[in-house]
Amino acid sequence: QVQLVESGGGLVQAGGSLRLSCAASGSIFSINVMGWYRQAPGKQRELVATITSGGITNYADSVKGRFTISRDGAKNTVYLQMNSLKPEDTTVYYCNAHSSTIGHTYWGQGTQVTVSS
Fold first, then answer.
1. Is pLDDT of 112 > 90?
2. Nearest 5°: phi and psi at 40?
C-alpha cells in the first residue's frame, strides 16, 4: 500500500502562485510515476502533470509554461509549482502514484485550489 498526503492548496488572486506538495509513504519502492490531476465538479478528472522516477515530465497543454512538477527522492515528495494562476485553474487537485509493476494506482485525498479574478 502507498499513502499520499497532499498540502499547499488555498486561495490566491489571479496571476499569483501556489506550490502543492505530495508526500508518499508505504510501499513506495514500486512507484514509477507520480503526478497531479484535477477535477472540476461535473467533469472528468484530467491530467495536469506527471514525473517518472527517472525525472521525465509531462504536462497538459493548458498548464505548460506556468506549472512545474518536481520531485525530492530523499523526502519521497512530489511538488507542483503553479505560477500565473488563472480562475479556470480553480478546482480540486489530486496527487497520483502509479506502479506499473503491480498495476495499481493510488490517489491522495485532494486539495482545493481557488483562484479569484
1. yes
2. -90, 155
Rounded Cα distance between 109 and 87, Å, is: 22
Query: Which three cell numbers, joined as nine digits, stand for 72?
Result: 525530492
For 34, the grid coordinates are 507520480
H-helix segments, 41-82: none
What φ, ψ does residue 83 adopt, rounded to 5°?
-115, 165
Taking only the tens place, the pLDDT of each residue in 21-76 is 999 998 888 899 999 999 988 999 999 999 999 999 999 999 999 999 999 988 89
Q: Give the amino acid at 48.
A: V
In sequence order, the 6+-apart residues with CB closer than 8 A to the CB of 47 are 35, 37, 58, 60
The sign of the CA dihedral 99, 105, 111, 115 is positive
Q: 6, 22 in Cβ contact below 8 A? A: yes
Backbone dihedral region for residue 103 (phi beyond 0: left; psi -120 to 50: alpha; all else: beta): left
